[in-house]
Write a structure and sequence with these properties.
By secondary structure, the chain is α+β, with helices and mostly antiparallel strands. The protein folds into two domains: 76 residues, OB fold (Dihydrolipoamide Acetyltransferase, E2P), CATH 2.40.50.140; 160 residues, de novo design (two linked rop proteins). Helix content is 39%, strand content 23%. It has seven helices and seven strands. The strands form two sheets. It has a five-stranded mixed β-barrel with strand order 1-2-3-5-4. The chain has a two-stranded antiparallel sheet with strand order 6-7. The longest helix is centred in the middle third of the chain and has 20 residues. It starts with a strand and ends with a helix. The protein binds zinc ion. The site of zinc ion has 7 residues, from loops.
């Protein structure tokens, strides 16, 4: 069956002397395909089967088996990202994270958030903010989403005083022990990160302090609750 899918190649491996196997993140999940002859110098598939090619892929589709790649139509070259090592690191991490989640839980909105995030980074928006927005939304698909409605200890919606990554969410005045108090702007912005539709973001005016608070919160929360260990994430933390 001939089938067209939109997606981004997340990895490529050699297959025999002349071919490659690629894996594509698509809204239907991860699709593996053989790109026959793609290593040949004259192959039209050669440059379109590299990691992070974003395009429409025409496949002879086989369910639960490797498909066969017929042709690729590039949607966006992602050229701003690809000429900047830090931005490539973000792309790499967002792709790894999406890949990991899709292995267990696939949802079209996850794919949409992933593509929207990458396109915003390509447009020049702050990659750390976009990455954090994606991460906070991704928690829902990992089954460890944060409740932005009530205290995570008692369920009360009243008198929320802070949020704590170790406790797993909001903390109300009654349950408060000695957790770090985040200022109101950080609390508000964290909730905005969760609610915003990434494709609609055009301008980001957030103070460095708030950006930093949120990033630290998310890193701690991920370490504590997701069980994920991604090298691309550790790499990003080291260059931030
Ligand atoms: Zn409480």
């Amino acid at each position: 069956m001939l089938k067209a899918v939109e997606g981004i190649i997340v990895n490529e491996t050699n297959y025999g002397e002349t071919s490659k196997i690629i894996h594509i993140i698509t809204k239907e999940g991860i699709i593996g395909a053989i790109a026959k002859g793609a290593k040949g110098l004259k192959s039209p598939l050669r440059s379109y089967t590299q990691r992070f090619t974003y395009g429409n892929f025409l496949l002879y589709y086989k369910e639960d088996k490797l498909s066969i790649l017929k042709s690729v139509d590039v949607i966006n070259e992602l050229s701003n990202i690809k000429k900047n090592l830090i931005l490539i690191s973000y792309l790499s991490y967002l792709s790894d994270l999406t890949h990991q989640i899709m292995k267990q839980n696939n949802d079209e909105t996850l794919y949409k958030n992933y593509i929207d995030g990458i396109l915003k980074i390509e447009e020049g928006l702050n990659p750390l903010i976009i990455c954090n927005i994606f991460e906070i939304k991704a928690l829902d698909y990992l089954g460890v989403g944060i409740s932005f409605n009530a205290c995570c200890k008692c369920g009360s919606c009243k008198e929320i005083v802070t949020i704590d990554p170790d406790a797993g969410g909001y903390i109300c005045k009654k349950c408060y022990a000695s957790e770090i108090i985040y200022d109101e702007k950080t609390l508000k912005m964290l909730r905005m990160y969760y609610l915003v539709d990434i494709s609609t973001i055009s301008d980001l005016k957030i103070s460095d302090k708030v950006i930093d608070n949120i990033n630290k919160f998310i890193n701690t929360y991920y370490d504590r609750y997701t069980g994920l260990y991604l090298k691309s994430k550790k790499f990003l933390e080291n260059i931030q």
